[in-house]
Design a protein that fits this description.
Elements (H helix, E strand, L loop, with lengths): L1 H4 L5 H18 L4 H4 L4 H22 L5 H5 L5 H31 L2 E11 L7 E6 L1 E4 H10 L10 H8 L10 H13 L4 H8 L3 H4 E6 L2 E2 L6 E6 L2 E6 L33 E5 L6 E4 L5 E7 L10 E6 L2 E14 L1 H5 L2 H4 L17 H17 L20 H7 L14 H6 L13 E12 L18 E7 L3 E9 L3 H16 L3 H22 L1
Parallel strand pairs: 12-14, 12-15
Antiparallel strand pairs: 1-15, 2-7, 2-10, 3-9, 4-5, 4-8, 6-7, 8-14, 10-11, 12-13
Helix pairs in contact: 4-18, 6-17
GO molecular function: ligand-gated sodium channel activity
Protein name: Sodium channel protein Nach
Keywords: Glycoprotein, Ion channel, Ion transport, Membrane, Sodium, Sodium channel, Sodium transport, Transmembrane, Transmembrane helix, Transport
Length: 531
């Protein structure tokens, strides 16, 4: 007797009870009565409810879901069955809540960036562009020559020429009176010059600033490595820059310039770029700095050199070693197939630039600020590439250009935005999105006094007392590579949801099929068996 009280659920016993119930139901409701006594709607609903209840009872007795069998067991008390019903309902609610939260997180953060490798070979990463800008923006030799050659309108003092030359520096802290601008415009018109052309002719020459060049341990012509470009810093010399639509190399060696950025297969300064710089102290005429030297900008080969670049300063009589630790980020094909609103980044070929070859966030923000300058001044700044569709700003627009230069030092390119608004903004101007793929060049520099005995046996450099020896190189053979991937694809989402449901309720695809089976196939099979 005690064994009967403790007996466990027997599927055959339940099936026998079901068959007995069905036979009793058939005897009490003969089939010939249905044709003569139509079933009332209330009775039909009652039958459907009894059918559904019976199938759910059978499902609870046979399913593998945790706790469901206790709801219909007859060998436990009624209170225990109610207790297990509450537990099952709470488990279902918890599972639904966790699945919804997991789905919300996947939609809130659709992409994720992780470290793929800390031993990614540096020869797979392009060498950075190296842009060198002299502290001195105006050559004294050229300025004095222009002073003798340029004509001055009647009634204007020749001392105004010095102020005109200083105007090419585009100072950001002072505004020029309109009367002075009118005088400068008359001087330029008389000499058939523009402000942009005057700036180019007064700038120090690249070949004169860069004396010797060694690339990957081989002495190389500097004019085949460096080209002259217009930047926010004025006229600068740049190496390995491919961001512009065209280059400024001499025609006779333009065919030797590679189509893609340089790469190196080693580390250490003998495998990188070494240049001997001449600041030409005696040629200083106009500068913003109190010392003598160069400003060094390290940036991606396709990015325009601006304030976002890694910046170093090298001064006279010094030997500087600039070690670069590159980092590379790439995006998977799943990211490329994602909707733009979800991935929130752009590839280099997905948006066309006005004067630059490839899209990047830095290039987009630069052109965005340029467009703001065009809207503000009605002309294009002289340091920006122009395909002929825009008017180049002249001397009369100098105050507007000086004012617009401040746009390039603010995150949102808008002086009216406070810090609180910048912190809470969800988007950048002009629809600029971050890069899906990019290279970042973190740099460190070490400087020491230059040993002048290095030039003792070199007749060309007898007076090289103010030279600068610069080395730029990768510091290691390995680098860090990041991978941007989707947070959850269909497989990981299935694993995540299935893990949550399986942990709490023991749910699986088979149990879902069981539920469908008891509501659809099981009644059909029972009907066929009765026939």
């Amino acid at each position: 007797m005690a064994f009967k009280k403790r007996r466990i659920f027997d599927l055959r016993h339940v099936q026998a009870q079901q068959m007995a119930t069905t036979a009793s139901h058939r005897r009490s409701h003969p089939t010939h009565n249905y044709s003569h006594n139509p079933i009332q709607p209330q009775h039909r609903f009652r039958q459907i409810g009894e059918w559904f209840t019976e199938n759910m009872r059978n499902y609870c007795q046979t399913t593998s879901l945790h706790g469901f069998s206790y709801i219909t067991r007859q060998d436990i008390s009624r209170n225990e069955r109610w207790f297990w019903l509450v537990v099952v309902i709470l488990a279902i609610i918890t599972s639904i809540v966790l699945v919804v939260v997991s789905w919300y997180w996947s939609q809130e953060t659709p992409t994720v960036t992780v470290i793929e490798s800390s031993h990614f070979p540096t020869w797979n990463i392009p060498f950075p562009a190296v842009t060198i800008c002299n502290f001195n923006k105006i050559s004294k030799t050229k300025a004095l020559s222009f002073l003798d050659q340029m004509q001055v309108p009647v009634g204007i003092n020749r001392s105004e020429l010095h102020n005109l030359f200083n105007l090419t520096l585009l100072p950001v802290d002072t505004m020029i009176s309109n009367d002075s601008l009118q005088i400068y415009d008359r001087i330029l018109s008389l000499n058939n010059l523009t402000l942009n052309r005057l700036t180019q002719q007064l700038s120090p020459d690249c070949i004169e600033m860069i004396s010797n060049c060694i690339w990957k341990g081989i002495n190389t012509r500097c004019d085949s490595l460096f080209q002259r470009i217009d930047t926010m810093e004025g006229q600068c010399c740049t190496f390995n820059y491919f961001g512009g639509i065209s280059n400024n190399f001499p025609e006779k060696i333009a065919y030797q310039v590679p189509k893609r950025p340089y790469r190196v297969t080693g580390c250490g300064y003998p495998t990188g770029l070494s240049v001997l710089l001449n600041p030409m102290i005696s040629d200083y005429y106009g500068t913003f700095f109190s010392g003598f030297g160069f400003r060094l900008l390290l940036h991606d080969a396709y990015n325009f050199p601006d304030e976002n670049s890694e910046t170093k300063v090298v001064t006279t009589t010094r030997e500087s070693f600039v070690r670069i630790n590159p980092e590379s980020t790439y995006a998977t094909n799943d990211i490329r197939r994602m909707d733009l609103s979800l991935r929130n980044c752009l590839f280099g070929s997905e948006m066309a630039m006005h004067g630059l070859r490839r899209y990047s966030f830095i290039n987009c923000m630069f052109e965005c600020r340029v467009r703001m300058t065009v809207d503000l001044c009605g002309c294009l700044p002289p340091y920006v590439y122009n395909n002929g569709s825009y008017k180049v700003c002249g001397v009369l627009q100098t105050n507007c250009i000086i004012h617009s230069k401040r746009l390039f030092s603010h995150a949102l390119a808008n002086l009216n935005f406070s810090l609180s608004i910048v912190r809470e903004t969800d988007s950048f101007p002009c629809g600029c999105l971050p890069d899906c793929q990019s290279n970042h060049y973190v740099s460190e520099s070490t400087t020491g006094r230059l040993d002048m005995s290095y030039f003792a046996n070199r007749p060309t450099f007898n007076n090289a007392t103010d030279r600068i020896l610069l080395h730029v190189f990768f510091s290691d053979l390995m680098s860090t590579r990041y991978r941007t991937d989707i947070f959850q694809n269909w497989l990981s989402a299935l694993a995540s949801f299935g893990g949550l449901l399986g942990l709490i309720m023991g749910f699986s695809i088979v149990t879902a099929f069981e539920f469908i089976y008891f509501l659809t196939f099981r009644p059909v099979f029972n009907y066929i068996n009765r026939e």
